[in-house]
Amino acid sequence: MHKQLSRRSVLKTLPLAAACSGAAVSKLLGQSLIQDTPTVTCAGSTSTTVTLTITAGPGVPGIRNPAAPNGYRITWDACSATLAGNFAAGVAVNVTIGASQANLTYDPASCANGLACGTSFAFTVLARGVPGVSVDSHPANATCATSACVKGCTYTQGFWKNHAGVWPVSSLKLGTVTYTKAQLLDILETPVRGNGLISLAHQLIAAKLNVANGASCPAATTAISAADLLIDGLVVPPVGSGSLDPSATSALVTTLDAFNSGTLAGCPTECK
Questions:
Q1: Which domain holds residue 65?
Q2: How far, CA to CA in Å, does 235 sit from each of 42, 177, 209, 220, 257?
Q3: Which residues pair with 125 in a beta bridge?
Q4: Which of 103, 123, 124, 261 is a plausible cystine mate for 84, CB 3.0–4.6 Å?
Q5: What is the predicted pLDDT for the residue at 113?
């Protein structure tokens, strides 16, 4: 009968097994390799993004798998992002959180709409395990802050929807009806579903928040006034049941969206 090797016996064979892969040695020990812990540092920021520099670990033969062959998982607040790729040991990569980037997938997707300005975020980075070979690394942590809030530039309605903590006002008037901050957030969360009033309200809310934050131009002022006149006393869902045909609102929606996105001629650019 063959005797089962003890852990100590297996460890004595490690010098001989040096030529074997780390995965093979780990299998002998009845363990899964763990990916080596990367390092993470703050590399820069804007008012809506933070750039992290992540460097893949060197590994320890038979104990910690080197590099990051299955990419990284990054978490902060209620968000996470996965950076796909095969990163060799010692190789550094810059990841800009709060903006779209090749091979970077956000969960939920709204986390790509920018970070709150003037705010510190605690980031945790893991080197992802390779199925059948290794498990996720221990966490690497860094606390990084976005730049101070900027006035005189614009943010999109997606930004305002996801960053209620930096709103410059607590209520807004749409048409002739005044809404609380909570009601405005409910409106921003409501799908358009063919209702031109809702799509117009989304852009009008963002435009008025941008103006309250210090961004303005004649073209935006004209469009905002026209939108208020069109909405008049209609109450926007889900607060009310008002409705407008998209054909009546599309031109104003386009103009206000351009203002909020920083692309309307003669108006402020988008905050960076």
A1: 34-145
A2: 45, 7, 19, 22, 21
A3: 74, 140
A4: 103
A5: 86
